[in-house]
Design a protein that fits this description.
Length: 130
């Protein structure tokens, strides 16, 4: 593609807002009977930010992971929390606590993840919700 050939058009598009560019794409699709791929367009314009600028809401996160970042000084209390939360045996829970930092549980609801994090912190450990 020759930049000189399309220089005027490119300059006009650069000065447009993302919403205007989105409308332009729709108009071009209608005019020429083609379809621009929405994910490819959003990726070129900056992904989630482009979707937000175009007036679309970014999907809300519904699944959370809890990561044990530190077992803390009270290892026995931490093992009990992990054992109860994950339904593990004593040895398995101890092995997980010994391997910190690691993901304890994935795909949790926000409330469940926050409760697990609170339990971990209550036992003297540190956790992150991701």
């Amino acid at each position: 593609m020759s930049n000189e050939k399309y220089k005027d058009i490119i300059e006009k598009i650069e000065s447009m807002s993302v919403l205007d560019v989105s409308e332009l794409v729709k108009a071009l699709e209608e005019k020429f009977g083609v379809s621009a791929s929405a994910p490819a367009f959003a990726g070129q314009m900056g992904g989630a930010q482009a979707a937000q600028d175009a007036g679309e809401a970014a999907p809300e996160k519904t699944s959370y992971d809890v990561e044990l970042t530190s077992a803390g000084d009270q290892k026995i209390a931490m093992i009990k929390v992990v054992k109860e939360a994950l339904g593990l045996g004593l040895k398995e829970a101890k092995d997980m606590v010994d391997k910190a930092p690691l993901k304890l549980k994935e795909g949790m609801k926000k409330e469940e993840a926050e409760a697990l994090k609170k339990s971990i912190e209550g036992a003297g450990g540190k956790a992150e919700i991701k």
